[in-house]
Amino acid sequence: TVVKIVNELERSGDEIKKIAYKAQQMQRPDRLTTVRLHDITRAAALAEENLRLALDAFARLDVKAAAQVISNDEAIDAAFLANLRQLISYMMEDPRTISPALEIVFIAKSIERIGDHAKNIAEDVVHVVKGKDVRHATAEQIRAEVAE
Q: Which of 36, 47, 117, 41 has its CA nearest to residue 83?
């Protein structure tokens, strides 16, 4: 399980590297980039906090914290979909925004994947402590499993 968690951390690092590369490509400060990056920043903060919580859950073998990570992932996924819908609207309204909007979509997807990696770590914690594979369980089922 430790190897799986290390793999999830490595994948998170790869996503962070992609975000940094895309951010460097987006050096020109146009309105779309500024407005949309504000929303992406909130999603990034959620993903960062969830990754920290997942690592803390692993360090302490805390299944309640792991269950919280799994629940929090739903908010990260919802933020990604909301950002995606808004960016699609911008692209439909003004085709000149397609290129910068797509760059932001790629960043948003990387943030969402970081959240997924945190969730995978949390699922591994539940597996180690409870001996149950919860990868395909709902957040409610996992909370019930943790409460036992």
A: 36
Answer left, alpha or beta for residue 133, where phi above 0 means left and psi between -120 and 50 means alpha. Answer: beta
Q: Could you give all domains of the chain from N- to C-terminal order, each with its CATH number?
A: 2-147 (1.20.58.220)
DSSP-based three-state secondary structure for 30: coil
The sign of the torsion formed by the CA atoms of 28, 29, 33, 39 equals: positive
Angle, vertex CA 146, rays to CA 113 and CA 45, nearest 5: 30
The phi and psi torsions of 42 (rounded to 5 degrees) equal: -65, -45
The tokens for 133 are 């594979």
DSSP, collapsed to helix, strand or coil, labels residue 97 as helix
Per residue in 52-100, pLDDT (tens digit) is: 999 999 999 999 999 999 999 999 999 999 999 988 988 898 888 888 8
Is the whole model's pTM more than 0.85, yes or no?
yes
